């Protein structure tokens, strides 16, 4: 199913539809400020495992990332020092993933790596979904290395490719082609480990 939503003013009824799918353990594809993402309720372990299987992600070796709707809830899921919090405050919402140590609130599947990626995209649609859900949303991009670019940016082609797997594909307009910039904040000085979209303001 495709649901059309507008970033400037997402329709609350359509958002509610998406949220109820996530509450039922469903998989949703949504726009962000970088690439289109695929996700589920980040606290629903069965749904998280399903996405890891689909994308060939080994949660013991790869960082899992979650989307929060604002900075106020981050400390529930990740340990944040004051300097890192200030850095995040300067750069979020924005196209950055901050790698932080996990807290005990996250399910065991995240604790294998002891770290979690935190995203607060500059996109009202996905932030509104997270706010209504009341839980973070697991986030992995729909991009595969061998994909034609159109299959990662055009919602109709994304639906054609993933429609059998995702319960809802949100059409939020054309997506970007650059991934987020990943900043490792787990050992003292923050370090950019993948330069993507955006310039980090230190």
Automatic annotation (TrEMBL):
SUPFAM superfamilies tied to this protein: YrdC/RibB
One Pfam family recorded for the sequence: Sua5_yciO_yrdC
Annotated ranges, domain YrdC-like: 12-198
Top-level taxon in the UniProt lineage: Bacteria
UniProt cross-references to InterPro entries, sorted A to Z: DHBP_synth_RibB-like_a/b_dom (IPR017945), Sua5-like_dom (IPR006070), SUA5_domain (IPR052532)
GO MF annotation terms: double-stranded RNA binding
Gene3D superfamilies: DHBP synthase
Matching PANTHER family: DHBP SYNTHASE RIBB-LIKE ALPHA/BETA DOMAIN-CONTAINING PROTEIN, THREONYLCARBAMOYL-AMP SYNTHASE
Name of the molecule in the record: Sua5/YciO/YrdC/YwlC family protein
Organism: Proteiniphilum saccharofermentans
Organism placement in taxonomy: Bacteria, Pseudomonadati, Bacteroidota, Bacteroidia, Bacteroidales
């Amino acid at each position: 199913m495709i649901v059309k939503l507008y970033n400037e003013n997402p329709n609350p009824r359509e958002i509610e539809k998406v949220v109820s799918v996530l509450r039922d353990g469903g998989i949703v594809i949504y726009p962000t400020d970088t690439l289109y993402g695929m996700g589920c309720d980040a606290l629903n372990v069965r749904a998280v495992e399903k996405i890891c299987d689909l994308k060939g992600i080994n949660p013991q070796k790869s960082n899992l990332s979650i989307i929060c709707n604002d900075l106020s809830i981050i400390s529930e899921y990740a340990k944040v020092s004051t300097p890192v919090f200030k850095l995040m405050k300067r750069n979020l919402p924005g196209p950055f993933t901050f790698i932080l140590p996990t807290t005990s609130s996250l399910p065991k599947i995240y604790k294998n790596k002891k770290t979690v990626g935190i995203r607060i995209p500059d996109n009202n649609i996905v932030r509104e979904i997270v706010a209504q859900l009341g839980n973070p949303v697991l986030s992995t991009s729909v991009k595969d290395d061998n994909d034609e670019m159109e299959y990662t940016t055009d919602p109709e082609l994304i639906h054609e490719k993933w429609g059998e797997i995702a319960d809802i594909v949100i059409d939020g307009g054309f997506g970007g082609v650059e991934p987020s910039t990943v900043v490792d904040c787990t050992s003292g000085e923050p370090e950019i480990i993948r330069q993507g979209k955006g310039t980090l303001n230190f």
